[in-house]
């Protein structure tokens, strides 16, 4: 979305313009639901996360200072809501003591390129919750391991380990799909 | 393939991925959003409209064609009339003025069938000779302005021909004028009496007032980070605050200075999105208001004024009462607290008062207030909506 039109949309939403709010929701909701499904595999829970995230977006939109993209700001809100949902469901992001990593062959780029997005989503959904969460935050959302450790209350080394284990599991799945 | 390449491919594959959203999801979201406030329902718009309306009412009285009170164009213009009982007695203040006549007979003998209304200059009351009474500097006698008329056996009409003149009622033991010579005396008390009756002259210069103020503001403010065993955000729904105030004001002509004490009670509902906390917040404030006021105009029994002031509010008590649905209800159903930060505010008021009986007014005051950021942890309507409007109703006793 063009920055000027995005700014106008934000201003209209700040004035509680229902049309603008619906437009913003229509614009980002499909991507946010996809994002939520990467954190929780249950569709109903993912919809609850999207619902709660958008309510927070509209009610705290005055805190969006305009720095960075609106989409990025919305994504961070959704990540926070998703993590809160996982905590409510007693998901613990336990530390891993060892750095044991499954030894598998390197994945060819072409395997990933031939893969559809839905297939990749399916593979990610098979990961254990902790691995999946760290993988989503690091590989897709772009959080650093330090930020992930602070958010999840784990060690930074544990974040790295969980990411590597997640990556190994994904690569193993990709090998199976060859 | 190195990790950066792997991550890049994964992101590219999923960056544009979207999933069809259920049709009813927007309805669930929009039902929980704050209601759209049309512009004419916004509190501050209504307050400004009330102030503008009040200004128009004041202007219509002040600038009406007849009987201007602000600046009479002619010293001989009738500005007020009153019908009083012929036997009505007004006590003469003998502390400042020599007795004008010794008896009613003397007064009657001095006034014959002559005009009894005298226009005097504003510099009347110069005392040339105490023995002769009070001499008026300028006297203009207009026969046509004499409106003394016996309406009934016990009624007489007394008219005031100027805002600063001596009022004469020959048949009442108030004052005597001899318009044939230069010895003119008048009754200061009678003048003040008539002036006061028509709101032309002086009134008691101070008053006590008591009023209650309620605000039209009601808002939902989110989010507020609240950490209680984890991250969470409290949503507040502030109710209309109620303020009662007692004020003392001293008038200096049209200007006045006031100081008082106020009490404000606030209630808000709060909830955390994950229902860890749900409850009601109560806040009690004691305030010290000060202000400077200016009387814009006075018409008959109505007076219009404006006031600019400041107020300091002190939080005396606060309480969070958890609802049974709150997760922490079982272990902590009430959490008392107190904010030690002082709350300062500036307020602009436009008021209208009506004299119900002598020295007792009722008034209404639309007020626009701004509450400065106190950097406090307490969330209330002042912190979340600094600029707000309110409407006060009260009573005022002059003394």
Describe this structure in words.
The complex is a heterodimer of chains A (178) and B (399). With 178 residues, chain A is mainly alpha-helical. Chain A contains nine helices and no strands. Chain A has helices at 3-14, 18-39, 43-59, 70-88, 109-114, 117-125, 129-140, 145-152, 156-177. The longest helix of chain A is centred in the first third of the chain and has 22 residues, at 18-39. Chain B is α+β, with helices and mostly antiparallel strands. Chain B has six helices and 18 strands. An eight-stranded antiparallel beta barrel of chain B has the order 8-11-12-13-14-16-17-18. A three-stranded antiparallel beta sheet of chain B has the order 1-7-6, with no helix packed on it. The radius of gyration of chain B is 33 Å and the shape is elongated. Residues 63-81, 84-191, 197-202 and 216-231 of chain B have low confidence and may be disordered. The A-B interface holds A 16-18, 21-22, 25, 29-31, 33-34, 37-38, 47, 50-52, 54-56, 58-60, 80, 84, 87-88, 106-109, 112-113, 115, 117-118, 120-121, 138-140, 167 and B 1, 3, 5-7, 9-11, 13-14, 16-22, 25-26, 28-30, 32-37, 220, 222-223, 230-233, 235, 273-274.
Total beta strands of chain B: 18
Global structural class of chain A: mainly alpha
Outline the biggest β-sheet of chain B. Answer: 8 strands, antiparallel, barrel
Order of helices and strands of chain A: HHHHHHHHH
Largest interface, per-chain counts?
Answer: A-B, 42 and 38 residues
Instruction: State the oligomer.
Output: heterodimer
